[in-house]
Amino acid sequence: MRFMELGGNQFHGEIPQEFGRLFRLRVLNLSNNVLGGKIPANLSYCSDLKKLEYFGLRTSNLTGEIPSSIGNLSSLTGLTFDFNHLEGNLPMEMGLLKRFAQLGAAENNLSGIIPASIFNSSAITVISVAGNSFHGSLPTNIGLTLPNLQVLYVGGNNLYGNFPISITNASGLKILDLPDNKVMANLSNQLTKLFLVGNQLSGTIPEGFGNFVNLYLLSLEENYLSGVIPRDFGKLQNLQALSLYENELSGQIVSTLCNATTLYHLDLSFNQFEGGNIFDNVLMNCQNLQYLDISQNNFTGIISPHFLQTHSSLMHLYLSDNSFTGSLPPEVGKLIHLVDFNVSHNQFSGDISMSLADCSDLENLFMQSNFFRGTIPPNLASCKSIQRLDLSSNNLTGPIPKEFEKLQFLRYLNLSYNDIEGEIPNTGVFSNASQISLIGNNKLCGGIPELELPPCPVIKGKNRGKLKVIILLSIVLPATLLVLVDKLLQISYHELLRATSGFSSENLIGSGNFGSVFKGRLEKHGNMLVAVKVLNLQKNGASKSFKAECKALRNIRHRNLISIVSYCSSIDSKGDEFKALIYEFMENGNLDLWLHPSETTAQATSSRSLNLLQKLNIAIDVASALQYLHDHCEAEISYTEINNMHISVYPSLKTNIHIIIRYKTNKISEYGMGLAASTQGDVYSYGILLLEMITGRRPIDDIFMGDLDLHNYVNGALHERVPEIVDPLLLSEGRDENSRITHGEEAINGGREIDCITSLLKIGLKCSARLPNDRMHMNEVVRKLHLIKDVFLSVRVHQENLEA
What we know:
Layout: E1 3-5, E2 12-14, E3 27-29, E4 34-37, E5 54-56, E6 61-62, E7 78-80, E8 87-88, E9 102-104, E10 109-113, E11 126-128, E12 133-136, H1 142-145, E13 151-153, E14 158-162, E15 175-177, E16 182-184, E17 193-195, E18 202-204, E19 217-219, E20 224-227, E21 241-243, E22 248-251, E23 265-267, E24 272-276, H2 278-281, E25 291-293, E26 298-301, H3 305-310, E27 316-318, E28 323-324, E29 340-342, E30 349-351, E31 364-366, E32 371-375, E33 388-390, E34 395-398, E35 412-414, E36 419-424, E37 436-437, E38 443-446, H4 464-481, H5 493-499, E39 508-511, E40 515-522, E41 528-535, H6 542-555, E42 564-571, E43 577-584, H7 591-595, H8 612-632, E44 646-649, E45 657-660, H9 679-695, H10 710-717, H11 722-725, H12 728-736, E46 740-741, E47 748-749, H13 752-767, H14 778-792
Parallel strand pairs: 1-3, 2-4, 3-5, 4-6, 5-7, 7-9, 8-10, 9-11, 10-12, 11-13, 12-14, 13-15, 14-16, 17-19, 18-20, 19-21, 20-22, 21-23, 22-24, 23-25, 24-26, 25-27, 26-28, 27-29, 29-31, 30-32, 31-33, 32-34, 33-35, 34-36, 35-37, 36-38
Antiparallel strand pairs: 39-40, 40-41, 41-43, 42-43, 44-45, 46-47
Helix pairs in contact: 8-9, 8-14, 9-13, 13-14
């Protein structure tokens, strides 16, 4: 017998002494049983048993001490006693195990000093002794004697003394756990560089870093640090590079952060910092900055013109995913060395500054998802080195500058979801459809055949310009009618009667709070397909709802809000008052149909199953529309006015689908509970919708009884059983892409999909929190969703090593 794997059973009683007779035994695993008693000392009696390589007794009921004879097992490489009731000291003899690589003795009753001899094995990769009562200090040379150390768990003990500075020599260290000890980071004043990247460090950054007067490089990125930046960071006069990227830090940035005049690299991205006017109040003193990344935070205010004018050394400037406002100052042209400039996903407005063309070294320019207006400056073509340009999701108008054809290094151009018009160039970057995105601009024509756009009209003669305008107006007139409610001609009752075949049941799409919706075809308007919402005026508040909805739709401008085509206020054939609203018709129906196709239509809708990326895009579309209504709508709109607003999902599918913001169809919104309409109520409804999209379960499924609802259902499975509650279609998609999900240790490998799903579920839970004040703001929802999408698509490219 050489290998004995008996783990994960229900064996009980004591470990038989007879195991000592298995002189050829090399692996013994008795983990995860209910064995008790002491570890047999005679396991090491047989000389041939020295060949034992792994001994696992994890999660049993073992008592007593670890026998000193364990040191006789000279071939032992792994020893796991975690989660038992062992007591006493770790045997000194364990230092004799020269091949020893993994020690697991966490969560026992062990005490005493951790023997220094244990740290003599250069092969050690894992030391896990957390949750005991060890005291004393860690060896000061731990990083020198254990160069291969990857995991160090010593939390939950009574260790004290100085933090062993030599730990920084363990270049492979992935997890460092020191909580609930008294270890102080009394690092040498001679320390010049400190990297603690990706070590799962948590808690606040301790005071005392200001004592490291010779420190010029400090990297604490990719941890779980929280709280604020200590004020004594301002004492680091020699600091050249500081990276706090991807933590959970918050609060305002200390004004002394830029006291170090040598600071050239500052990365505060992917945190929760806040505050306005950060450029004037904090960053102005960072005179030598070359790299600045404050993206993915909660900063507000404007970009200071004076900051831009005095920081011409900047080469990389990342401001995306904040809440900056105002226009882009012309002083941006002073950044003559700028290579990367990203202001996407903010609230900037105004024209795109023509001075950007002065940034002749510019390679990457990202300005998407703002409120920029006006035309695209043709002189941007002066940036000969530009490689990626994204101006999508703004309010830009006018033509595509033909000068862009000459940009020989341009490999990515996204102008989608604006209002640009005219002929598309067909050379340069425009000759490759995979390198450009122009969707959501309904006035474009021409271009290469792969774009599948209508040809531009060819007009001859001196009146060509005038005729072209007339023809273009005839093309875009229906789109204009969608937003100019107050200028539309009223459509008669009889025309709607014909369009809907007498409001027949065959054309009934659905019923809502104040009426019914019918599919119709307007013969006098080019057989346009419409959805006619006929109000039930017998219902209290219906007439008021009609006026409010007209007012709201007249004032709303957003690509994801379904536009109104017209309205009708007339008398029906019986002489009764008649009111109806006419919307765009969403050929693909509503989102509920896509999420829950009935059995009778399952075959017809099998092609409609949504993959993870489509659901993620839908989540972003809906969140963006709600964010607009909550914070960015220029007109003041009350909640009774948007009570029945519809959201259309444009980018996610080839043809449109829609949902209702209030989500009343499932009777789980707070409005259905009798609470007043509010932004927080919208967030609740959105959260429930997001959970339904990912789990595939309606909030009113039969399994939800008593205290168990969709929110609690997801929350109870979030940490360990996510694959069990997710829509199987999403996981099957993941398996098709060779994502492997292992349930034994809940290890998830190659799991971009499951990571994305878990992140979406967390947002859904946060949005549907019981207390309104605990819910997220839609600005934060949109920001996090874009981040999840970037990570899912592996868009974000990690920056070069700070030391480079």
